[in-house]
Amino acid sequence: MKKIIEVGIKANTYREKRNFSDLAVEGYRFKKVIDFYKFPAYFYFKLFKKTHPRWLNLFWRPFFKKSHIYHFFNAINCGNQPWVTTMESYLPRGAHVYGLFPSESKYICYSVERVAHRSCKKLIAISEWARSTHISYMKSFPNQIDEHMKKIVVWHPPQKLLIQKMSDKPINKKLTFLMVGADFFRKG
């Protein structure tokens, strides 16, 4: 029997399903695992009615059985277990430009070091824009930019082809746009 590699995931919402957890990859199994930061983040949300920007994007699993590797979406592993993350802009997600808010500086530096750490195996940007945005963000960290550059790749979210070639597409002279949804700017 072939060995199954367990890939631990922090969440299994639309973002994870769309980009990696719903892919049928032989020999891999995605499993949602408990994140220690989920608990203080929950109480913070209940108390202040907003998400905590740091706890939302960090992952820590110190006391539980480890997965072979972790795969996150916009999150950073605080442990030494191997991990990859798929990102839609730059990491740390939601942080401001380094130095703009001194209260974020320690968190930003910690996150940048974690991505440069040997436990981080890949940064998967979902677009060329996400890759270039992360590289631009890293200009404030010249000591780590090379390590980030080695790890970053662009993998567009997989999707089924609706047409095989451009000539199969019906073309009208009129172009109509319709916007649906509350998170327009997140949709890319």
Give a verbal description of the structure:
- By secondary structure, this protein is of the alpha/beta class.
- The chain has helices at residues 14-21, 38-48, 53-57, 105-116, 128-137, 145-151, and strands at residues 5-9, 28-32, 58-59, 69-73, 76-77, 83-87, 120-125, 152-154.
- The strands form 2 sheets. The protein has a 6-stranded parallel sheet with strand order 2-1-4-6-7-8, sandwiched between helices. A two-stranded parallel sheet has the order 3-5.
- Helix 4 links the parallel strand 6 (83-87) and strand 7 (120-125).
- It starts with a strand and ends in a 34-residue tail after the last strand.
Give a nutshell description of this structure.
This protein is α/β, with parallel strands linked by helices and 188 residues long. The chain is built from six helices and eight strands; from the N terminus they run βαβααββββαβααβ. The radius of gyration is 19 Å and the shape is globular.
Cα-atom radius of gyration: 19 Å
- Return the string of H and E elements: EHEHHEEEEHEHHE
Query: Taking all residues together, what is the mean pLDDT?
Result: 88
Give the percentage of residues in beta strands: 15-25%
Percent of residues in helical segments?
25-40%
Quickly list its features.
single chain; 188 residues; alpha/beta; 6-stranded parallel β-sheet; two-stranded parallel ribbon
List strands and helices in order, with pairings:
Blueprint: E1 5-9, H1 14-21, E2 28-32, H2 38-48, H3 53-57, E3 58-59, E4 69-73, E5 76-77, E6 83-87, H4 105-116, E7 120-125, H5 128-137, H6 145-151, E8 152-154
Parallel strand pairs: 1-2, 1-4, 3-5, 4-6, 6-7, 7-8
